[in-house]
Design brief:
InterPro entries: GH, GH13_cat_dom. The protein has 221 residues and is an alpha/beta fold. It has helices at 2-28, 35-38, 46-49, 60-64, 67-72, 108-120, 139-145, 210-220, and strands at 40-44, 75-80, 84-85, 97-101, 124-127, 157-158, 161-162, 168-169, 184-187, 192-195. A hairpin with a 5-residue loop joins strand 7 (161-162) and strand 8. The chain is elongated, with a radius of gyration of 24 Å.
Length: 221
């Protein structure tokens, strides 16, 4: 029984292989791969890659110093972990300002110099952008707490469910990704719960609000 099963599996695999080669051979004459499908993309975790000023944290100038190295190993694009302004509760994935470079990595001038150096060597620069949530220190969230328009509904806010004992409970049983606790956090000032799929300090943006969608589109343009 084992031998028969094994032979059948090999025949099945061989048949799929032949079929796949036939399909892709046919496509190769009419379908051209995009750059990201055929070039090497090198991910750089900025804070630990290269420290140019001796403060113990990797930075943009440190990356610039190694551009020729990336060229020598035929890298087509570099992908940087988040470098935007952040309180660093989640190593930059909690962004407090999408328009500013975090000073621990350098300045906007440092970024532009790094970008230009990569481009001179024909290497693209990709930034790790976090659209799902912001830091709770972001101006949008602080204004949303206070219900300052148009930011009132920039985040996912819900009223509590009152149990039979009169206690406030979260609006659903959803759990956060990082732990087994609730994905909802109570805010005393606003007297509502807000959704955070990740850390408590990373409130989720409300994409049912068209204003939020338009805000985020700006950063992609």
């Amino acid at each position: 029984m084992f031998k028969v099963t094994t032979v059948c599996m090999w025949l099945f695999a061989f048949n799929n292989l032949v079929s796949s080669e036939y399909i892709y051979e046919g496509l190769s004459n009419s379908y051209e791969l995009d750059w990201w499908q055929k070039e090497i993309i090198y991910q750089i975790y900025v804070r630990s890659f290269r420290d140019s000023n001796g403060d113990g944290i990797g930075d943009l100038n440190g990356i610039t110093e190694k551009v020729s190295y990336f060229k020598s190993i035929d890298v087509g694009a570099v992908w940087l972990s988040p470098i935007f302004l952040s309180p660093q509760n989640d190593f930059g994935y909690d962004i407090s300002d999408y328009k500013e470079i975090d000073p621990i990595y350098g300045t906007m001038e440092d970024f532009e110099r790094m970008r230009d150096e990569f481009h001179k060597h024909g290497i693209k620069v990709l930034l790790d952008f976090v659209p799902n949530h912001t830091s709770d220190e972001h101006e949008w969230f602080q204004k949303s707490i206070k219900k300052i328009e148009p930011f009132t509904d920039y985040y996912v806010w819900k009223d509590p469910i009152i149990d039979i004992h009169g206690n406030k409970t979260p609006p659903s049983n959803w759990l956060g990704v990082f732990n087994s606790g609730s994905a909802w956090e109570w805010n005393d000032e606003r007297q509502q719960y807000y959704l955070h799929q990740f850390q408590v300090k990373q409130p989720d943006l409300n994409y049912r609000n068209p204003s939020v969608r338009e805000e985020i589109k700006v950063f992609y343009s």
